[in-house]
Amino acid sequence: MGAKELARTLAWRAGWVYLNRGFYWEAHEVLEPVWMVLPDGSAERQFTQALIQLANAALKHRMGRENAVRRLCGIVEKHLAACGTSERVMGLEVRAVRDRLAILRGGGGLGVLVE
């Protein structure tokens, strides 16, 4: 199954719903199988890994583990950078994720990524 097909799967959509609603552990669990089948080195795989780590960072923020948040935000940024100049990956705006990453780095909650 290719990235276009994966972007239409229930797992991908559920991962976004969970992330948007603050169910960070669940988002991580649902998105991980999507990440596992994407081609190594692809922008889609990097972007999905960024989302998984963003969910992890948001969970750590909720737990008050700010050192972990900072470390994970750095990992998210590296994965987003590996997406290259893509504005959208698997139907989602990379900029929206970067914006939420900046908020999380600044000590705020994750907030809603997309509506």
TrEMBL record:
Species of the source: Pseudooceanicola lipolyticus
Protein name: DUF309 domain-containing protein
Superkingdom as given in the UniProt entry: Bacteria
Entries under Pfam families matching the protein: DUF309
